[in-house]
Amino acid sequence: MGKFLSGIAFTFLVLLVVLVWAAKSGAMDMRADQPPGFFERKLGMSALDASIDKHAPDVKNPVSPTEENLVAGAQLYVNHCAGCHGVPSNKESQFSRSFYPQAPGFFEDTPDMPENQNFYIIQHGIRWSGMPAWNQTLSDAQVWQVVTFLSNIQKLPPAALKAFEPAVPQQPQQLR
Question: pTM higher than 0.70, yes or no?
Fold first, then answer.
């Protein structure tokens, strides 16, 4: 029985050495414009989900979905998120397709994670995905406004949708 267990331990050690060698030798293709390998496809999203489940604090969203908060969340989204995650007129931005994993277009694919997990992701980002950590740029209150906006993205009031309308250019004043 001891030799059998030693054989299993040795096999796992060899697999670990091969995996480390593959990673360090450049054998693993890490380009974002190439399809992921077998292990990444099988383990990547489940590892991410497990990490978020474990680390996202169990907190309740303190921001109610008032029109004022939804407008503020929409403006923050336009300024910080829309380039990657789309807008109503361009639900899947061309830019989002250059990431791996591809950045979700939230007007096409509504976020379905609990609000505490969305808050955690926005605050801390996701390594190797292009999703930055916004905790150095946005306050907790602003992050919660974005979370509230995302939770209500399919039923936004007209005032919040105005944030997505193109700005009317100002006419330059003529010199006198």
Answer: yes
